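quick one
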Amino acid sequence: MALEKNENFFELTDENDRASAIETQFNEDALEIARKKTLPETDPDFDGVHCIECEENIPAGRLKLGKIRCIECQTVIEKQGKFFAS
Ligand SMILES: [Zn+2]
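structure w/ zinc ion:
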C-alpha cells in the first residue's frame, strides 16, 4: 500500500513539473506578446487619430497606448501574424 501511494505521488509530481514547465513557456510567450503590444507603433501615414488601415477613428484609450490601428484591424493583423508564424 505504501509503495502504491509513493508511485502515485511521483506521478503527480511529474505531472506538476510538466504543467509548470508548460506554464513557464506560456508565460514567456505571453510576456513577449505583451511587450510587442505595448510598444508604441508608428507609421508615416498615421495622422494621430485615424486607423491606418480603414481610417476609422481610433478610441482615445488605444491612442494613449500608441496604437495606430482600430481594434478590428488590429485583430485582423494579429490573426494574420499567427497564421504566418505557424
Ligand atoms: Zn481599422
